[in-house]
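Illustration: DUF2330 domain-containing protein.
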Amino acid sequence: MAWPGWRRTWLVVLALVTFQLGSLVWPAYACGCGGLVPGRNTTMAVERETSVVRWDGRTEEIVMSLTVGGDAHEAAWIMPVPNRATVRLGDRALFDEVRELTAPVRRTRHYFWPRPGDWPFDDRKIEYLGGPRDGAGAGAPPRVGVVSRERLGPFDVARLTATDPDALRDWLEAHGFELPDRLAEGLKPYVRAKWEYVAVRLAPAVAGDKGDGAKEVLGGTLDPLRLTFDSSRLVYPMRLSRLAKTPQALELYVLAPHRMEPRGDIGGGAPRVTYAGWFTPGQAPLGELAEVAGRRMFLTGFQQSFVRPELIDGDHEFRRAAEDTTFQRVTYDHELLRVGGVPAWLLTVGGVLLVLVAAAFWALKAGRRRRAERYWGPGGPPAPRLG
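Result:
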């Protein structure tokens, strides 16, 4: 028996209301490099994650910028690190400079025959030249130790150690970092590996109310944070990103003594190389990038997408590539080939037509001469008599 139209309509409305109430009861969360948790009854998603990583074989530095969206006016960010980290604010100019340096170069490629838009009747594409397309007993330490807690601009930053994942969760929740069960579970591998943690409370750059009682929300590109820690291997923590509810996009630039490559795709799409080349401070007016690099370094850019974040199975680990092969994207501007301002095809076609006309004229003239010789003989027609 068919349902009346009004009953079907009310069922749809009821389903939508139930879904919305469910989103209020269960706090949503998203992850970038680390775990990002919005405040209660709010939502937040990491739309893009961009990081510049410097590693010299002993020390690693991560300058990370998150672009977020949602309705949260505060959030907490938990970042695992293999060793004790120092934390300070980064400079947004760094990301503008690195994108300027690694942007595709522009070149012109000419084509011969006209295309739509050319008389009598322009086109662009990006090509890649070379390189892959590439991706507790007595005397035991406390279960949670607070290394430091400080205020950096709009961020409240706590540096922590932990020997017990449940104790780490209890401390975070006692200090306002409310963790979903899955995120707390995701921290356990780092606790077992004896990593440390940077816990950051995020707030809008402009604190307080808008004036109408509504609080500022976190949105757009947040101020970057700069973490420095000892590390004998180049690692970029990504394991917690598997808890994200939306697809993730990673843009990563690696500064190292040589070209680096990821050991695997860790469950995402194949990492794609967007740039590879040597960078020497002083070669260009790029102040922040020069300051982070410190000396001549090989810069490798990567982009990777995680359509299904739940498939992420580990952290990104990088190794030295077989060769320090350079790579540069090229954007081609396709233009009609011209000679002296005249389309080359028109000159060619016109020249061919002239040759054909000339050949036809000489062929016609030669044919008349042969017919005359057959009729009058080799000497042609006799000269006319006068008188």
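Reading the tokens back as a structure: The chain has two domains: 27-135+137-336, 343-374.
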